[in-house]
Automatic annotation (TrEMBL):
<feature type="active site" description="Proton acceptor">
    <location>
        <position position="209"/>
    </location>
</feature>
<dbReference type="InterPro" id="IPR013328">
    <property type="entry name" value="6PGD_dom2"/>
</dbReference>
<keyword id="KW-0520">NAD</keyword>
<comment type="similarity">
    <text>Belongs to the NAD-dependent glycerol-3-phosphate dehydrogenase family.</text>
</comment>
<feature type="domain" description="Glycerol-3-phosphate dehydrogenase NAD-dependent N-terminal">
    <location>
        <begin position="8"/>
        <end position="172"/>
    </location>
</feature>
<dbReference type="InterPro" id="IPR036291">
    <property type="entry name" value="NAD(P)-bd_dom_sf"/>
</dbReference>
<dbReference type="GO" id="GO:0046168">
    <property type="term" value="P:glycerol-3-phosphate catabolic process"/>
</dbReference>
<dbReference type="Pfam" id="PF07479">
    <property type="entry name" value="NAD_Gly3P_dh_C"/>
</dbReference>
<dbReference type="GO" id="GO:0005975">
    <property type="term" value="P:carbohydrate metabolic process"/>
</dbReference>
<dbReference type="InterPro" id="IPR006168">
    <property type="entry name" value="G3P_DH_NAD-dep"/>
</dbReference>
<feature type="binding site">
    <location>
        <position position="274"/>
    </location>
    <ligand>
        <name>NAD(+)</name>
    </ligand>
</feature>
<dbReference type="Pfam" id="PF01210">
    <property type="entry name" value="NAD_Gly3P_dh_N"/>
</dbReference>
<dbReference type="InterPro" id="IPR006109">
    <property type="entry name" value="G3P_DH_NAD-dep_C"/>
</dbReference>
<dbReference type="GO" id="GO:0005829">
    <property type="term" value="C:cytosol"/>
</dbReference>
<protein>
    <recommendedName>
        <fullName>Glycerol-3-phosphate dehydrogenase [NAD(+)]</fullName>
        <ecNumber>1.1.1.8</ecNumber>
    </recommendedName>
</protein>
<dbReference type="InterPro" id="IPR011128">
    <property type="entry name" value="G3P_DH_NAD-dep_N"/>
</dbReference>
<dbReference type="InterPro" id="IPR017751">
    <property type="entry name" value="G3P_DH_NAD-dep_euk"/>
</dbReference>
Length: 347
């Protein structure tokens, strides 16, 4: 009997979405007292050698494009419609590149259960009409459901191979019980979940570290060495913290220093992430980021360049660029206004 058990759905099936489907799918079986075994996963349909990606995933139990070589549990079912995935869900994970969230939420509006609880794993921000929002807030506003956030030092390919890592769930004040439910969805002996009452801090660390990772990639491309990279990371962490303190209320200092979402994610992204890799190639090849994204990422999406542009737009609207010289330089270099070698002269 699985009549009153909680149903989980996943909106997104890229590199991280597929890795998290593996973890959550297995935990649905492990905690079968609480959860319905079937997990529906929304897949943005595409054709691979003439066959639909959803059909391949459901037949082979592998996302051959975005997470090749890693088995996805058989209780995870790929569906090509976000609405079909989400409509019966009690728990709804959002894990797509941030540029697609607005259109997905407008499709889902009014079609999910009023009691659904959401969780955002998106590393990005929305800048609109001179305001900045984290995606947990965007989702809450667009869908009218409560939304927590998960972020951490989580390179998807490593997590998918069950290599040890930690992550952080940020929850709203008074919602510790909800966070404990999400803990049960994700925690495994190899993927250890910490909880912190700080949705904004967790979300912003995840978004802003991608901008710092671009700067770290520039230093790698320039061959400036480890000291320069450490300096850029330190300055980046200070700008992340200042930005949160200046523009958001209630972000906790310990989120930066004591959680996986903070310093640990900054370190892993600046050494092993896609943003770093593409930024190094940007310096070495002179190719643009859109070209490098296509050539190097096989359909996966860069978040840092777009986030740098959005953060710059927001700071410019407030005349505050000079308070954030590293964030500003990353945008100016990515958009071709500065040379990469000029990065530190503006700090
Ligand atoms: N990959 C990682 O290591 C990792 C780790 C932690 C967090 N994240 C974050 O998780 C989020 C999702 O990242 P990811 O790695 O799963 O994605 P990804 O970079 O693999 O992006 C590709 C996904 O985008 C989908 N897509 C393309 N066009 C679309 C459209 N028009 N509408 C909807 N979907 C479309 C593709 O089908 C595919 O599922 C991002 O915010 C990312 O920063 C990624
Ligand atoms: O590959 P990146 O640069 O998008 O970073 C991936 C994750 O966010 C690391 O935690």
């Amino acid at each position: 009997m699985s009549g009153n058990k909680l149903r989980l759905a996943i909106i997104g099936s890229g590199n991280w979405g597929s890795a998290i489907a593996r973890i959550a799918g297995r935990n649905m079986i492990r905690h079968s007292d609480t959860f319905h075994p079937e997990v529906r996963m929304y897949v943005h349909e595409e054709s691979i050698n003439g066959q639909k990606l959803t059909e391949i995933i459901n037949a082979k139990h592998e996302n051959v494009k975005y997470l090749p070589g890693i088995p996805i549990p058989e209780n995870v079912v790929a569906v090509p419609s976000a609405t079909a995935a989400a409509q019966d869900a009690d728990l709804l994970i959002f894990v797509t590149p941030h540029q697609f969230i607005a259109s997905i939420c407008s499709e889902l509006k009014g079609k999910i259960k009023p009691s659904t609880q959401a969780l955002s794993m998106i590393k990005g921000v929305e800048v609109k009409d001179g305001n900045i929002n984290i995606f947990a807030d965007v989702i809450e506003k667009l869908l009218g459901c409560k939304c927590s956030a998960l972020s951490g030092a989580n390179i998807a390919n490593e997590v998918a191979q069950d290599k040890f890592s930690e992550t952080t769930i940020g929850y709203r004040p008074g919602e510790h019980e909800k966070a404990e439910l999400w803990f049960k969805v994700f925690d495994t002996p190899f993927f250890r979940v910490g909880l912190v009452e700080d949705v904004a801090g967790v979300s912003l660390c995840g978004a802003l570290k991608n901008v710092v990772a671009i700067a770290a990639g520039f230093t790698d491309g320039l061959g400036w060495g480890d000291n320069a990279k450490a300096a850029v990371m330190r300055i980046g962490l200070m700008e992340m913290k200042s930005f949160c303190e200046e523009f958001f209320e209630g972000v906790k200092a310990e989120t930066f220093t004591e959680t996986s979402a903070g310093i640990a994610d900054l370190i892993t992204t600046c050494f092993g992430g896609r943003n770093r890799k593409c930024a190094e190639a940007f310096v070495k090849t002179g190719k643009s980021f859109p070209v490098l994204e296509k050539e190097l990422l096989n359909g996966q999406r860069l978040q840092g360049v777009e986030t740098a542009r959005e953060v710059y737009t927001f700071l410019e609207a407030r005349g505050r660029q000079q308070g954030y010289p590293l964030f500003t330089a990353v945008h100016q270099i990515s958009s071709g206004d500065y040379k990469p070698s000029e990065m530190t002269s503006h700090l």
